[in-house]
Amino acid sequence: MPAGYDVVVVGAGIVGLAHAWMARRRGLSVLVIERTPAAQGASVRNFGMIWPIGQPAGKLHETAIRSRELWLELQQAGAVQLSTCGSIHLAHRDDEQAVLEEFCDQGSHNVSLLTAQQVLQQCPLANPAGLRCGMLSQTEMRVDPRQASRSIAEWLAEALQVDFEFGTMVCSVTDGTVQTTNGRRWQAQTVIVCGGSDLQTLFPEYLQQAGLKLCKLQMLAVPPQRNLSPESAHIASGLTLRHYQSFESCPGHQQLRARIASETPELDRYGIHVMASVMPDQRVILGDSHVYDHEITPFDSAQIDDLILRELRKIIRLEDWQVSERWHGIYAKHPQQPVVVTEVAPGIRLCTGTGGAGMTMSFGLADRLWNQWQGVAS
């Protein structure tokens, strides 16, 4: 007879780890199966930003704040290292300033407007040339994305007795039986498939019906910058205001989008908005771009990297602009929904499509979903 668990989670990225943790918090026995020796997908190929500011007011922002609380629990438990660094959105154009002022006036997020001088006092990264103002938010945090998934998995295994099978590929899930390509089987009352950008291996027909899209982003890193603190706030540009849904409620948002589309259509062509995040070793992660579905190729575009760097030079200052690393990530997202959750058979659920908000939303989403599944009001 195959070994049995209350819950088997397929995928040890941040979404899978969130479900494993939330199930274990509820007293359930849990096995996590991951095809690679460690998580290698979007969970390790991002800025390390926990980014509630990007979620619109209401349930999504509340979920992001709940996720933030759970990240802090992980830090207190010694599972992960966090920086409560906050974020600063920079405005170098009048319409960017207008949107920041409108967003602050709405009072939906805990933010405050900074003068250009206040920005420069708090943020040595900011480029003073043409700087109008900034918007400070205290809710954003930073993890090292290359370490976080691994260290959380280790903590789940050691502290909470979650079992892991790495380097093991699941090929089928039927009637509570999880089958792997090496011939092993496990039984589970509940199976949660968190396959990230893999929309082909398990239940592809359901994932196709869900309307998921794949998104490829390009990112870069520069060497450690001696003048920057690892506690430096995340930096976002005026271009970022057109990327996150939270800013769409601002009256000036459409005017901002129209100006960018008119002046720099190449940025819309590749979905470029620019951000910077200082890692614990003072490396700076830079990015990023967004191309979708049939436009995705295995080959990274030098033109996209050049455009990202061009726009970053307008908003930040670095001692050393020499690019030390280049990479890309691919994630699944839904055009309207923050996550795709589908029950394909009794006890078998798909949970994917958190888009670029996996680090921000996964723990809060998993907590909310487990409450729903167990009939607990949330």
The name CATH uses for the topology of the largest domain is D-Amino Acid Oxidase, Chain A, domain 2
Strand residue percentage = 25-35%
* Count of beta strands: 19
* Number of helical stretches of at least 4 residues: 10
Structurally, how many domains make up the residues?
2
Q: Helix/strand-derived class? A: alpha+beta
Note the gap between the termini. Answer: 38 Å
Mean pLDDT value:
96
The biggest beta sheet reads: 9 strands, mixed
The whole-angstrom Rg is: 21 Å
User: Which descriptor suits the 3D outline?
Assistant: globular
The CATH superfamily title of the largest domain: D-Amino Acid Oxidase, subunit A, domain 2
**CATH class annotation of the largest domain:** Alpha Beta
Unreliable stretches (pLDDT < 50, length at least 5) are: none
Question: Judging by the overall fold, what is the CATH architecture of the largest domain?
Answer: 2-Layer Sandwich
In short:
With 378 residues, this protein is of the alpha+beta class. It contains 10 helices and 19 strands. Strand 18 and strand 19 form a beta hairpin.
Describe the structure.
With 378 residues, the chain is an alpha+beta fold. It is globular. Strand 9 (170-174) and strand 10 form a beta hairpin. The strands form 3 sheets. Strands 4, 5, 6, 12, 13, 14, 15, 16 and 17 form a 9-stranded mixed sheet that branches. The longest helix is centred in the N-terminal third of the chain and has 18 residues, at 59-76. The two termini are 38 Å apart. It has 10 helices and 19 strands.
